[in-house]
Amino acid sequence: MNPSRRSAGRYLPSAPVSLPDRRWPSRTVTTAPRWLSTDLRDGNQSLANPMSPARKLAMFRLLVEMGYQEIEVGFPVASQDDHDFVRLLIEDDLIPDDVCITVLTQARDELIRRTVESLAGAPRARIHIYNATSPLFRRVVFGMTRAECLDLAVQGTRLMMKYADRTLAGTDLRYQYSPELFNDTELEFSLEVCEAVMDVWQPETDRPIILNFPTTVERTMPNVFADQIEWLDRNLSRREHVCLSVHPHNDRGTGVASAELATLAGAQRIEGCLFGNGERAGNVCLVTLGLNLYTQGIDPGIDFSDINRIRRTVEYCNELPVHPRHPYGGDLAYTAFSGSHQDAIKKGFDERARAAMAIGASVDDLPWEVPYLPLDPEDVGRTYETVVRINSQSGKGGVAYVLASRHGMLLPRDLQLEFAAVVQAQADAAGAEISPARIGELFLQEYVVQRPLSVPLRFRDMVDTELHVGGGGFTVGAARADAVEQIRTTMLSWGIDVRAVHRTGVGAVSERDDVVVYAECRLGTRTVWGVGIDAGPDTAAFAAVRAALSRALRSGTALETVGDLDAPVMHPAPPLLRPVLAGAAGLDLAGTVGLDRAG
Ligand SMILES: CC(=O)SCCNC(=O)CCNC(=O)[C@H](O)C(C)(C)COP(=O)(O)OP(=O)(O)OC[C@H]1O[C@@H](n2cnc3c(N)ncnc32)[C@H](O)[C@@H]1OP(=O)(O)O
Ligand SMILES: CC(C)C(=O)C(=O)O
Ligand SMILES: [Mg+2]
C-alpha cells in the first residue's frame, strides 16, 4: 500500500482493558470446553450457495457422529429451507437424546414468534437471541440509545418466554443470549445488558443461561479479548448458573488464539465451525481447537479419527475447498518437502522403532515425539506415506525415507548420498515434485540391471558355483554357502574390490519378498554401487555385483581409471568378463574398454 495515499491512522486502536491483576496468563487448560458447532447457521449464512437440505443433513449427521452435543441448526425465519430443516430434524426424530439443537433469531417480535413455533414438538431445544450492543451499531444500525438497546434484549427475552409458554409446553427449553459485537462494546454496558436479560430469564440450577460473547468482527489482539472475558468472569452475577461462552471470528487470523486465551480467562464453551467456515475470514476453527487440545494430552471429546472424511463432508456441504495448509486437516499438513525437515522426520521414526524394540513395546505405546510432526498422522486416519514428498528442496534423508517406506529398500548411508544426487538432478530438470513411483523407477534404472545376460557365465575360481543366465534370472549352485566371498575374491583378482554387501530383508520393489543386496565395489579410485534384488541372498549378491560392473561400464571414465591411480589407462577386458559386460550393458567392448587388475 502506498503510504502517501493511505494512512493506518484512519484505524482506531481498541482500548485496553484495565485488569492489572489479570490471572489468565498464568493458568493452563486441563479440560476441554463445551463446544457448539454453528456450521449450519453462521457457516451456512456465509455461503454463496446456502446448503441444500441434503447438504444440511450430511453436515448434521457428521457433527453428531463426531460427538458435538450442541449444534446450532439454523435461523428458521431466514428461509423456507432453514425452517423446513428444523422441522425435519424434529418430525423425523433425528436428534439424538444427548444432542441439543439451537436456533437463532433477532430480537424482533414477529421473528421470535415464528422461531419459537418452528421448534414445536422438539424434546429439547435452545433459543438464541442476539442484538448488537456496540456504540457503532447503536448509532449506525439501530439509531438507539443505550437504554433502548438494552430494552431490545430484555423485550426479546420476554417475548421468547411468552411464545414458548404457549407453544413449547413439552419442550425442555434452554436459552442463550449474545450481545453481538461484544468485543467492541463498553464492558460495563455488556454486563448491564446481560444482567438485565438474566433478570428476565432468572437462571437457576435447572434452568441455566448461556451468555455468549462474540468477537463478531475480530479487531483486537487475543490478550485483549482474554482480559474482557476475565473481567466478565469476575463481574457476572449468578455465575454458577451462567455458562460463559465465546464465539470468536477470525478477521485478524487470531480466532484460535482468542478462543484459547478466553478459556484461560474463564470461558466454558466455544462456538465455531469445522475448518473455520463462517462470515468473512470465518468463525474459529473447531478442528484446530479440538486437535490443539488433543496434542496437549487433553481429550477434546470429539472424534477426529477420520479427518479426511470430515474434510470431504465439509467440502461437500460448504462447496468450499479446505486449504492444503489448513492445520491438521489440509492435504499438506503432515508433509515435508525440505531436506532438513525430512532428515529429522526420518531420524524420528527410526529412533522410535529402535526405542520400541529395545523395550519390547509397540511404537504406539511411546509418547509421540517426532521432529516437525506435532501430531501422529495416524491418529487422524492419515498415513505416513505423504509425510515426505520429494522435489528439488529435498535431501538424502527424504529420498531414503521414500525408498524405505514405499519400496521396502533400506539404503546404506553412502548409497543414500549418491542416489540423492541422482534424484536432485531429476528434480532440478523437472522443476517439479518427483513421485515415489518415479523415485523407485529411477533407482531401478540407476542401480539394478534388469536386462538378462545373454551368455552363461562361469566363475573359474568358484568351485561348484555357477551362474547361469536365462529368462531374466540367475541360478546359483546351492553347494556354496560362501558364494559371496567367492565372488568377492574373484572380483578382487580383477581389481574390483567388492567392499561391502548390505542386505535388507524385503524388497517391495519387485512385489515379492525378495532380498535386496547393495554391493559397494571399488574400481580404481572410484566406488561404484550396484543393487541386486532376488529371491535368495546369493543370487541377489551376484546380481548386485553385476549391476555395479554394468554401471561402471556405462560411465566410461570410471573404467579408464581402473588399475592406475595416477594415469588413466585403457585395459582390454578380461576375456571372461567381456561378454558379461557386453550382455549386461548392451555394449560392444571390442577390447577398447575394460577392467583389469589394479596396478
Ligand atoms: C453476527 C451474525 O451473524 S447475526 C446473524 C445474521 N444472520 C442473518 O442475518 C441471516 C438470516 N437473516 C435474514 O434472513 C434476514 O435478515 C431476516 C429474515 C432475519 C430479517 O430480514 P428483514 O426483515 O428483511 O430485514 P433486514 O435483515 O434487512 O433488517 C434489518 C432490520 O433488523 C434490525 N435488526 C438487525 N439485527 C437485529 C437484532 N438482532 N434484533 C433486532 N433488530 C435487528 C435492523 O436494525 C433493521 O431494522 P430497520 O429495518 O428498522 O432498519
Ligand atoms: C449471533 C452472534 C453470536 C454472531 O454470530 C456473532 O456475533 O458473530
Ligand atoms: Mg458469528
Quick description:
Residues 33-308 form the Pyruvate carboxyltransferase domain. This protein is an alpha/beta fold and 599 residues long.
Structure write-up:
The structure is a single chain. With 599 residues, the chain is an alpha/beta fold. The protein folds into 3 domains: 34-318, Aldolase class I (TIM Barrel, Alpha-Beta Barrel), CATH 3.20.20; 339-447, Orthogonal Bundle (Helix Hairpins); 457-585, Double Stranded RNA Binding Domain. Helix content is 40%, strand content 16%. The chain contains 19 helices and 14 strands. It has helices at 39-45, 53-66, 80-91, 109-118, 135-142, 146-167, 187-201, 222-235, 255-265, 286-294, 307-318, 339-358, 396-407, 413-430, 436-447, 483-493, 537-554, 556-560, 577-585; strands at 34-37, 70-74, 100-106, 124-132, 172-180, 209-215, 242-248, 269-272, 457-458, 466-470, 473-476, 496-507, 514-523, 526-534. The protein has an 8-stranded parallel sheet with strand order 1-8-7-6-5-4-3-2. A 3-stranded antiparallel sheet has the order 9-10-11, with helices on one face. It has a 3-stranded antiparallel sheet with strand order 12-13-14. Strand 7 (242-248), helix 9 and strand 8 form a beta-alpha-beta unit. Helix 13 (396-407) packs across helix 15 (436-447). The chain is elongated and about 100 Å long. The N and C termini lie far apart (72 Å). The structure holds acetyl coenzyme *A, 3-methyl-2-oxobutanoic acid (KIV) and magnesium ion (MG). Residues 42, 214, 216, 247, 249, 279, 283 line the site of magnesium ion.
